[in-house]
Amino acid sequence: MSKQDNEPKEVPIEFSDNEEESAASDDTLASDDPPESDDPPAEGDSDRLAALQAQIDALTQERSMLLDQRLRTQAEFENYRRRVDRERAETYARSRAEVVLELLPVIDNFERALASLEHSGNDAKSLHEGIELIHRQLNDALAKFGLQPVESVGQAFDPNVHEAVSAEPSEEHEENTVIAEFQRGYRLGEKLLRPAKVKVASTPEK
After folding, report:
1. Mean pLDDT score of the chain, rounded to an integer?
2. First-to-final CA distance of the chain
């Protein structure tokens, strides 16, 4: 074997200038991508699209209906609130008028008593009778609205309706018995307006 046969030989690489062969090669490489289809949607897809559109239309209609109901409810509530405020104001004004109307006779009798004093001079008896009449009328007028005095003298001391101002040793009364009233207490219905200020009996020191 000669030395020339053992040397490596260069193998030429051939490039094809044929465009058709090159295009065929590209098509072969692109054949892995899914093919695009221009076929119309299947009948099942059309049915699903129609069903979705119908559902969208139904939801849109329901949303409009709920919005309309909300606006009407809000308007009705505003009308209700205004009506309640108006009725409350009318009731308050009517109550005030009833109270004032019941007290008007008291003012009338005060005016009559003052006029009587002008004509009779310093008549203490007429003045006393006039004041008694006015006091009775005023109590009667207020009693119509539920005002009632709190019973005190002779009753057992009740911290719920009595306020002890002082205490006095007493052998005549049991301990914690109310023996004097400094200011009368009143209830309006079941509610205590003010407690009675009282003096209570205590046990004498021995």
Report:
1. 82
2. 157
CB distance 103 to 141 below 8 Å: yes
Q: Give the pLDDT band of residue 133 (cuts 50, 70, 90).
A: confident
DSSP assignment string, the chain: --GGGGS----PPPPP--HHHHHHHHHHHHTTSPPP--PPPPHHHHHHHHHHHHHHHHHHHHHHHHHHHHHHHHHHHHHHHHHHHHHHHHHHHHHHHHHHHHHHHHHHHHHHHHHHHHHH-S-HHHHHHHHHHHHHHHHHHHHTTTEEEPP-TTSBP-TTTEEEEEEEE-SSS-TTBEEEEEE--EEETTEEEEPEEEEEEEPPP-
**Residues 53-109: pLDDT tens digits?**
999 999 999 999 999 999 999 999 999 999 999 999 999 999 989 888 888 888 888
Please indicate whether residue 145 or residue 43 has the higher confidence score (pLDDT).
145
Tokens of 38: 């221009």
Torsion of CA 59, 65, 70, 76, to 10 degrees: -170
Bigger pLDDT: 205 vs 150: 150
Question: Residue 73 carries which side chain, given as an amino acid letter?
Answer: T
Both structure tokens of 43: 């009948």
